[in-house]
Amino acid sequence: MINPSQVAVDRDKGNFHYDTDYSFDAGVGLSEEVVRYISEVKNEEPWVLDFRLKALDTFLKKPMPTHWATDDLKNINFDVIRYYLAKGQKPSRTWEEVPDDIKKTFERLGIPEQERKFLAGVEAQFDSEAAYSRMKEDLEKEGVIFVGSTEGLKEYPEIFRKWFGKVIPTSDNKFSALNSAVFSGGSFIYIPPGVKLAQPLQAYFRINAENFGQFERTLIIADEGSEVMYMEGCTAPKFETSTLHSAVVELVALKGAKIQYITVQNWSNNVFNLVTKRALAEEEAEVRWIDCNIGSRLTMKYPGVILRGRKARGEVISIALANDGQHQDTGAKMVHAADETTSNVVSKSISIGKGRSSYRGLVQMPGHLKGCKNNTECDALLINNNSQTDTYPAITVQGDDNSVQHEASVSKVSAEQIFYMQQRGLSEAEAMSLCVNGFVNDLIREFPMEYSVELKRLIELEMEGSVG
Amino acid sequence: MNSLKIENLQASIEDKPILNGLTLEIPKGEVHAIMGPNGSGKSTLAKVLAGHPDYKVTGGTAILDNENLIGMEPDEISRLGLFLAFQYPMEVAGVSIANFIRAARNARLGKDEKVKAVDFYKELYEHMDALGMDRKFTSRSLNDGFSGGEKKRCEILQMSMLNPKYCILDETDSGLDIDALRVVSEGVNRMRNPERGILVITHYQRLLDYIVPDFVHVMSEGKIVRTGGKDLALELEDRGYDWVKQEAVA
């Protein structure tokens, strides 16, 4: 009864683009010249250029990780990608100053409206650079820093250089090396000790150009006892050719600090989304990754927390939705490196049509530690008969005093469930969408209200046309 | 015009014929009961009328007021006013009863219309109170982990909230203790009115002590083989189904 989908997924929200003139264009393909060009345009310190060049070398030497990851990675053609595109202006502090075509884009995505309603600060990145960046004045007075990567490294090296590339070393994987070579944009954030942000900071990453690679670099440092919630949203128009998004996100939560990092990505399905995200949690610090992956051709993302201080706590909550032609390869890494550290992973994936979702989880608890706990739940929902899901847990736990719980389930929406719901008057698509929303409902509640409404709507859109 | 009129209905599943030319008319305002042994096709009739995709209709018609239901999607049939209370209601995790019924109500409205939350909950609570359901049930997942009795009450709750023109109750008495049977039957009886036709499918006479039918039909091998008043049910209880079958053959 439920037929495989022939989905023309509705991505109306992100699927548009305005022609833009770029003053700065690093051209096509990757080379030392391209890396030097980016560094020069940004007027960087020699140590940053040096960092980039070493990273390029690492990137070129590292093989594609296809011995464990999907062969689809081989289809990325690094020679046709454009690595840096910018208009050259500094990020504006008011929307009036943002160039019209870019402003129109962000207005259509609802960013200025969200800023007025509930955000403490916004950064809006258009291709390689931020077009707009503004934070509420009182936060500036309290010493909060919220800038792009270029500005962060140049203006506040004493704060950011210490941690830059330390949570995720350049050589962590091929794509962290690529990012380290050509990074541009992203958010550098510093929250001073004891400062607790009542409202979230938000970054919006927009890919506008075709054949483009977006490589933003984010570093958030929450000093002792501070609290911050950061949200990122991403979209790109639908192009025939593939687009690459490869970010590196490093979080540092010092003693007693709390960081919540929320992602809602709604990439078009030509985007390779290969992102490395990791956090360091010191004593009694708490890091939560809340991650929603919708769209993209291939997403590979395993947010991690290194629990380095006693009683540190890490959490990954993720929802992945894989539609026809999409592969969501997501998961979590929890590295316990101190006593009484706890971690929690809840992952829910939905596979529609020929969509595939994979879960990869890594939990490490060495034997000398005491009182560590991990809880992992991963649930998969299959919509059609040819939908696919797979799970690869890697759990290393030693010592008698540590505990790990792992639960996994796979369920399928049954034809009888759909018939039952249709008998009450719901269309097949409405019934399916209700089932899916029911499946992820408890996780959607973890997102801020403004986002959960959007998420539910996105899920409904994905379900349209997914039944035959 | 004002009836659910089934004529010479034939249906099969995986090429195996189950309904073999069934004819039955349920006018508005009447309660009909279908009784019959296991395997006679009672539940199949209910599912075929509701448009279950596993069954293939090979002949005949089922006219709801003016429209032939055969070939329609299950949700279209529902919105036309046919409600089926399931023998085994499905569990749907994460979807609350209130949200589900509200979605079903909204499906009956125009594109930009929605039920008003305040009115909706007032009505929902009235029906729940009458069925002896705890109001906390509204936030529980649909049928998820419910007892047999709770599931059946939930079916009657949905039936009351969706205000159908014709109701089919498929073995609603199965799995019910005597108290639950009484409450559920009272719920059905409250829905009896001149504007609604009700078809009760049951294996046992017991239910018909509570929901007293105007007519009783006996089904065997995919057909109605005998029709009578409510006393026919008592007679069946006494004598079993065999004599009807034998008479039908004879």
Task: Give a quick rundown of the structure.
The complex is a heterodimer of chains A (468) and B (250). Chain A is an alpha/beta fold and 468 residues long. Chain A has 11 helices and 24 strands.
> What's the number of extended β-strand segments of chain B?
12
Helical content of chain A, roughly?
10-25%
Structural Rg of chain B: 18 Å
Under CATH at level 1, the class of chain B stands as Alpha Beta
Quaternary status: heterodimer
Query: What is the structural class of chain B?
Result: alpha/beta
* CATH architecture title of chain B: 3-Layer(aba) Sandwich
> How many distinct helices of chain A?
11
Task: Note down, in words, how this protein is organized.
The complex is a heterodimer of chains A (468) and B (250). Chain A has 468 residues and is α/β, with parallel strands linked by helices. Chain A has one domain (24-463). Chain A has 11 helices and 24 strands. In chain A, the strands form 3 sheets. In chain A, strands 5, 6, 8, 9, 11, 12, 14, 16, 17, 19, 21 and 23 form a 12-stranded mixed β-sheet that branches. In chain A, strands 4-3-7-10-13-15-18-20-22-24 form a 10-stranded mixed β-sheet. In chain A, strands 1-2 form a two-stranded antiparallel sheet. In chain A, strand 3 and strand 4 (129-135) form a beta hairpin. Chain A is globular. With 250 residues, chain B is α/β, with parallel strands linked by helices. Chain B has one domain: 3-Layer(aba) Sandwich (Rossmann fold). Chain B has 9 helices and 12 strands. Chain B has helices at 42-50, 74-80, 97-106, 117-130, 148-162, 178-190, 206-210, 231-239, 242-249, and strands at residues 3-13, 16-27, 31-35, 56-64, 67-68, 82-85, 92-96, 141-142, 166-170, 197-202, 215-220, 223-228. In chain B, helix 3 (97-106) packs parallel to helix 5 (148-162) and helix 5 (148-162) runs parallel beside helix 6. Chain B is globular, with a radius of gyration of 18 Å. The model of chain B has no long low-confidence stretch (mean pLDDT 93). The chains are: A alpha/beta (468), B alpha/beta (250). The A-B interface holds A 1, 414-417, 419-428, 430-431, 434-435, 437-442 and B 50-54, 73-75, 77-79, 83-84, 86, 89-95, 99-101, 103-104, 107-108, 141, 158, 162.
